[in-house]
Specification:
The complex is a heterodimer of chains A (257) and B (391). By secondary structure, chain A is α/β, with parallel strands linked by helices. Chain A has 10 helices and 10 strands. The radius of gyration of chain A is 18 Å and the shape is globular. Classes of the chains: A alpha/beta (257), B mainly alpha (391). The interface between A and B is medium-sized, with 30 and 21 residues.
């Protein structure tokens, strides 16, 4: 069961409002380092919204108010002196639809590190970073001979791994994944899942998924959201086999959702 | 064999009627496009038919004397009997020609001399007014092969003139180019930046919505009002030179801005949001996302819209009449501060001239204007294809 592992993100009393609509109700959650945490729940339950709170992507939407705190490495990312762009450098995000830039595979990976000043454009270090990121994302063998081709020429599963490589290249601590496999076929999904298990050695991963089997396969911890509330948060095993809450059990067994 | 309800379970008694209706409808749509195309063909055909003769001009081969006397009074340079058939403008330019080629002085040259427009119209088979005596002379010269049609260089190297055979389109072409350069330099950056602000930065509130509605309304304002605005603001208030490409360009920029803004916004909006999300997810700043990812993707659309705006401005006459660009401009402008005219305004002037020779010049000018417009549109399509990003 739960080893005494370090808490990476400490969320306290997080409320989110879309205008007058209270979308997240006082979420409290400790997310552990180097673990995969799955967020499950029916559509509209607030799990994606919660995920986007963790790298302040919700700041991009008008009319959103957020209260409470999300402390990452002893710093609340909602403090006034924290820049949301800097937060997103440390906390990368992979989206539901693979969204590579309409540029070459190489540029897709190298673009953000160059802009962040991690490597110089055209340097050997840059090449090395691209290679390392693509190897980590398990894509190197498939694309090493065609780095100049557009990222959009790859298959859906490859594109998603390219997006993961792109995220890793910025050298974040945490990777947020918003239903990363829902647009992919089973074989690509399997590859991404294997990749996630590999990546958790170095990164803290939080994944939103609609697919409960997926949560069961990859997640160490699982959180069940319903109607903007965090209903239950525990080891994946506990959630699936022995949930405390009635609602969790109903959802897991397919009685609603 | 007649199909009946019993043999065919799909029998439909209204079938024939329906087919007939469908056929008629198709015929209607087809005939409307045929109608439209025939109009276009008629228009273009008419222009080409009327305009083509303007690219040829009649010359006569006669002796010209270059000496002190003929320089003082250029009529003396040629034999008295030709004075009523050759162009006054050609004679007027004799001293200029001698200045360019001093070796001509005190010689007698057999030269191709420009005929006046009435004789030219006679030779082209149009309506003419030439005295019988002169007509006989021309016919006699023609029989000797001393009258011929040559390529009309004057049309491309001269500005406007009150002597039809001496008038050309050059100052209007240069005026148009200068005006459009001013217009693009002002309207393109302003329009694109406005669109970027409204689409990427502005919060969605009452103010931005008010601005949006007003921009859309501006696109529909009669263009002559922009001319009045230009007159009031640029000329009266700021004291900029009247009739100049500077004022013309600024006025057209005002008129084209809404077109560029609206089309640029549409282009920016068509960039999928996932690209912006991807950028922000990587910790890029708004400026980096807009500059490196959104604008390149929107660029083909922005260019297309801007070139359509440019073509629109190019054919615009009304606001330029108001600010005085309809003036008689014989000399080609060399800067944006000099008085100039533009192609459509020049056409407007020529179309109102009584001489028959201006008719073919008007038509030829229209041909030039249309070919420039077609070139611009082709360029827009080329740009769109070239910068289009494959998904």
């Amino acid at each position: 069961m739960s080893q005494a592992s370090k808490t990476k993100i400490r969320v306290r009393d997080l409320n989110l409002y879309y205008g007058d609509n209270h979308a997240l109700h006082g979420i409290n959650m400790d997310i552990q380092e180097n673990k995969i945490t799955a967020l499950i729940g029916p559509s509209g339950c607030g799990k994606s919204t919660f995920l986007r709170c963790l790298n302040r992507m919700n700041d991009l939407i008008n009319n959103v108010t957020i209260t409470g705190s999300a402390v990452i490495d002893d710093k609340n990312i909602y403090d006034k002196d924290v820049d949301e762009v800097a937060v997103r450098k440390r906390i990368g995000m992979v989206f539901q639809q693979p969204n590579p830039f309409p540029k070459s595979i190489y540029e897709n990976v190298a673009y953000a590190p160059i802009k962040h000043g991690l490597v110089k454009k055209g340097s050997a270090a840059c090449d090395a970073l691209v290679e390392k990121s693509l190897i980590q994302a398990g894509l190197w063998a498939e694309v090493k001979d065609k780095l100049g081709e557009p990222g959009t020429s790859l298959s859906g599963g490859q594109q998603q791994r390219l997006c993961i490589a792109r995220t890793i290249a910025v050298q974040p601590d945490v990777i947020l994944m918003d239903e990363p496999t829902s647009a992919l076929d089973p074989i690509s999904t399997e590859k991404i899942e294997a990749l996630m298990l590999e990546l958790k050695k170095e990164y803290t991963i939080i994944i939103v998924t609609h697919n409960m089997q997926q949560a069961g396969r990859v997640a160490d911890m699982t959180a069940f959201f319903h109607m903007g509330d965090l209903i239950e948060y525990a080891d994946t095993e506990t959630i699936f086999i022995n949930p405390v809450e009635k609602k969790t059990e109903d959802y897991i067994t397919g009685r609603f959702g | 064999m007649k199909t009946t309800q019993h043999e065919n379970p799909f029998y439909d008694p209204t079938l024939n009627k329906r087919h007939l209706k469908a056929k008629l409808f198709k015929l209607f749509t087809l005939s409307s496009i045929v109608f439209a195309i025939s109009f276009l063909v008629f228009f273009l055909g008419d222009m080409v038919y009327k305009g083509l003769p303007a690219f040829q001009q009649s010359y006569i081969q006669i002796e010209v004397q270059y000496n002190e006397k003929s320089l003082a009074s250029t009529r003396q340079a040629i034999d008295r009997k030709y004075r009523r058939v050759v162009s006054r403008a050609w004679l007027r330019d004799i001293p200029k020609r001698v200045k360019q080629q001093p070796e001509l002085m005190n010689t007698k040259q057999l030269t191709w001399v420009l005929l006046n427009h009435q004789v030219d119209q006679y030779l082209k088979g149009h309506y003419y007014k030439v005295k019988a005596k002169n007509l006989k002379l021309i016919q006699a010269m023609q029989a000797e092969g001393k009258v011929e049609q040559q390529f009309n260089e004057i049309f491309f190297t001269h500005g406007d003139s009150k002597i039809p055979e001496n008038s050309g389109f050059k100052s209007a072409i240069v005026g148009s180019i200068l005006t459009l350069i001013v217009m693009m330099v002002v309207a393109f950056p302003l329009g694109v930046m406005t669109a970027v602000y409204l689409e990427e930065f502005a919060a969605d509130n009452t103010w931005t919505r008010l601005i949006e509605v007003n921009i859309n309304n501006l696109a529909a304002i009669p263009s002559i009002l922009f001319g009045l605005l230009g007159l009031a603001v640029f000329i009266t208030l700021f004291g900029m030179p009247r009739s100049s490409p500077l004022v013309g360009g600024l006025t057209l920029a005002l008129m084209t801005l809404p077109i560029i803004i609206v089309s640029s916004r549409a282009a920016l909006r068509s960039v999928p949001d996932s690209i912006r999300q991807a950028g922000y997810g990587l910790g890029l700043t708004k400026i980096q996302v807009v500059q490196d990812h959104v604008l390149p993707l929107a660029f083909p659309g922005i260019m297309t819209g801007s070139i359509i705006g440019l073509a629109h401005a190019m054919g615009e006459t009304a606001p330029l009449i108001i600010i005085g660009m309809i003036a008689f401009i014989p000399d080609t402008p060399t800067s944006i501060f000099e008085a100039a005219t533009v192609m459509p305004a020049q056409l407007f002037t020529w179309a109102g001239m009584p001489e028959r020779a201006y008719v073919e010049r008007t038509a030829a000018g229209i041909m030039l204007l249309i070919s420039v417009l077609i070139t611009l549109n082709a360029f827009a399509i080329y740009l769109r294809k070239k910068f289009e990003v494959k998904w």
